[in-house]
Each structure stands twice: as C-alpha cells, then as structure tokens.
Amino acid sequence: MARRNAPEINAGSMADIAFLLLIFFLVTTTIEKDRGLVRALPPEQPENVEPPIIKEKNLFVVIVNKNDELLVEDKPMEMKDLQEAAIAFLDNGGVPKGQEGYCDYCQGERDPSSSDFPDKAIVTVKNDRETSYDTYITVQNELVGAYNSLRDRESQRLYGWKFTEVKKAIDEGVYKGNEESAKEKLDVIKKMYPQKLSEIDPQS
C-alpha cells in the first residue's frame, strides 16, 4: 500500500500578517503618559561640613500613612487644606519687626511659634511604603502649588505678571519680551520663596 505524505501548510505569508498586525496595534493603541515630578538635586556638599542647625518651628512635617491619610504638624488634615496650611507656614514671617531676620514682604500671621523667614522654612514629607502613587503625587503637587501661589503673588506685586505664567512661557520657548530680564526677575522671586522641599525615606 502506497504511503501518503501529510499536506504541508503554506506559512510563507504568516510573517507579513504578523508584521501588519503589529503596525496596526502600534498605530491604534493609546499609551498613557506616566506622571512624574521635576526635581533638581542639591549640589554636592563638601566633606567634614557640619549640617546647619534647624529650629523645629522652621520644619513643616507632612506624614502620609499607608491608608493615604495625612498628618500635618501632628494633626489630621484633609488634602484640600494642605496647600493653604503650607502657605501659612511659608509666609508666616515669625521674626518681630525691628529684629534681624524680619520679613517685610510676608503677609502671614507672624506667629512666633511658626517659621521665622521663607528662606529658613523647610517642608518635609514622610511617606509609608504602602502609600499610593496617586496620593504621593497629589501631596507633592499641593506643596509645590503653595510655593507657586506665593511666587505668583509677589511677582504680580513687583512686576505685574505671574511667576508661573512667565516661567512656563520661557520653558516652552514662546515668551515674547526680554527673556534675560525676565529670568533675572524670576530668580529674584525664587530667592524670596526658595523651594525647600525634602523627603524622608519611606517607612515599612
């Protein structure tokens, strides 16, 4: 009895089909952009330099637990109130008038138990390892928003424009005007309210 050969499947076009499907999915698939934070690393400190002494009242401590709940200055706080609390701390100006270190542009309550001067005010964030990424980003945005709000206020008072709008226009290359002069003014505002935002290693 004659032996039959099994019919072969023509797979010559399979590679072409797979390639076309790959192109189709690449063109039609929407890839979400990850949200991130822009941070500049501090300059490297020389060795054998003692860290500066920081008064406890010049620290604004934000703790986020594993349930995404906030504890600000040892008190529970809602996310919606975080930016306002940070502004009050940064803009406090606790040194009395006539004394060294008095802030003549601060508009806070000038509480002697809170921050002395914007340059001395430090915001510290401590997260739990199980803190959600969305909450982490929201906390960072609220704190940066506090700095931007104060910077906008002062740039509006001194120059008639908002810090965030001019900075964005320069970063995007669409600023119409004397860019060098604008950058110098931005630096002045940054020195008035320097962004001192630190993070403590997450706790397990």
UniProtKB/TrEMBL annotation:
Assigned keywords, A-Z: Cell membrane, Membrane, Protein transport, Transmembrane, Transmembrane helix, Transport
Main location: membrane
Keyword Calcium: no
Cellular localisation: Cell membrane
Gene Ontology terms for molecular function: transmembrane transporter activity
Entry membrane topology: Single-pass membrane protein; Single-pass type II membrane protein
Organism: Dokdonia donghaensis DSW-1
One GO term describing the cellular component: plasma membrane
GO biological process entries: protein transport
Sequence similarity: Belongs to the ExbD/TolR family.
Entry-linked InterPro entries: ExbD
Record's protein name: Biopolymer transporter ExbD
